[in-house]
């Protein structure tokens, strides 16, 4: 009789303890698993409580003679020894394929972990950059405001100077008008005063005012003025890299 487990030829025997049935060779080799067979009854069909003899490749399940005409009708069913032989034929290539796929997933995990680290760094960098922009804008704002203050002060000073010089010039003019028709040379010279110094003073004031006006650039594009130092700082840094 051909043994359905090992494919060898021999008389069937049955183990008294676990009721496993097979050729003499299989009975001897099952001894290691006998306790397991007694406990879990792998060799008996759960549906029909009959000794299994075949394997269904549609359900990946051991079958008994009743299964074949019942639940597994028309399924791809092979005797156990053939099923084992077929599976053994594929097992090495499956092991190798799984190794390749395990490596693929492992490197995917490594790649993703690196990406995560990279993204975390980027988030930090965005934070830092934003902070840098803020600090730079705040500094520039302070400088602009300081300049504004200075300009206000200068304008104030010039305005005060004008207010001081104006009555002095009017006085000088009035004086000149009043002495213009004086016929007496002594009186004329004693009343006359030189207008040159006051005119020079006014000329100086006027020139200063013109210089100040040239220096004023504020008010053109405040956004650009606030961001310019940062952009320049950044491009300088990039150049030096
Ligand atoms: Zn056998
Ligand atoms: Zn046994
Ligand atoms: Zn069955
Ligand atoms: Zn089946």
Please give a structural write-up.
The chain has seven helices and five strands. It has 241 residues and is mainly alpha-helical. The chain has two domains: 12-79, 2-Layer Sandwich (Double Stranded RNA Binding Domain), CATH 3.30.160.60; 121-240. The chain has a three-stranded antiparallel sheet. Strands 1-2 form a two-stranded antiparallel sheet. A hairpin with a 6-residue loop joins strand 1 (12-14) and strand 2 (21-23). Helix 4 runs antiparallel to helix 6 and helix 4 (80-180) crosses helix 7 (222-240). Bound molecules: zinc ion (4 copies). One zinc ion (ZN) binds at residues 56, 58-59, 61, 72, 75.
Keywords:
241 residues; mainly alpha; Double Stranded RNA Binding Domain; 2 domains; two-stranded antiparallel ribbon; 5 strands; 69% helix; 6% strand; binds zinc ion
Concise overview:
Helix content is 69%, strand content 6%. It is built from seven helices and five strands; from the N terminus they run E-E-H-H-E-E-H-E-H-H-H-H.
Strand order of the largest sheet: 4-3-5
- What is the radius of gyration? 54 Å
Major sheet: size, sense and barrel closure? Answer: 3 strands, antiparallel
Please indicate the count of domains.
2
Which ligands accompany this protein?
A: zinc ion
Question: What structural category arises from helix and sheet content?
Answer: mainly alpha
Indicate the mean pLDDT: 91
| Number of DSSP-assigned strands | 5
DSSP helical segment count: 7
| Helical content (DSSP H or I, runs of 4+) | 55-70%
Report low-confidence residues grouped into runs of 5 or more: none
């Amino acid at each position: 009789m051909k043994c359905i487990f090992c494919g060898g030829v021999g008389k069937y025997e049955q183990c008294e303890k676990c009721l496993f049935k097979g050729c003499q060779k299989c009975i001897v080799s099952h001894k290691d698993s006998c306790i397991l067979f007694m406990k879990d009854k792998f060799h008996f069909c759960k549906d029909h409580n009959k000794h299994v003899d075949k394997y269904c490749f549609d359900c990946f399940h051991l079958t008994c003679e009743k299964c074949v005409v019942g639940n597994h009708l028309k399924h791809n069913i092979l005797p156990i020894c053939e099923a084992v032989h077929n599976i053994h034929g594929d097992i090495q290539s499956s092991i190798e394929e799984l190794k390749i796929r395990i490596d693929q997933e492992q490197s995917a995990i490594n790649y993703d972990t690196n990406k995560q680290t990279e993204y975390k760094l980027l988030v930090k960098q965005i934070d830092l950059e934003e902070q840098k922009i803020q600090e730079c804008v705040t500094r520039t704002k302070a400088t602009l405001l300081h300049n504004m203050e200075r300009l206000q002060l200068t304008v104030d000073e010039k305005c005060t100077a004008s207010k001081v010089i104006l009555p002095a010039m009017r006085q000088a003019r009035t004086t000149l008008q009043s002495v213009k028709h004086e016929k007496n040379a002594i009186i004329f010279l004693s009343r006359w005063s030189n207008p040159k110094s006051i005119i020079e003073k006014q000329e100086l004031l006027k020139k200063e005012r013109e210089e100040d006006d040239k220096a004023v650039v504020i008010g053109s594009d405040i956004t650009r003025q606030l961001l310019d130092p940062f952009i320049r700082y950044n491009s300088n840094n990039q150049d030096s890299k």
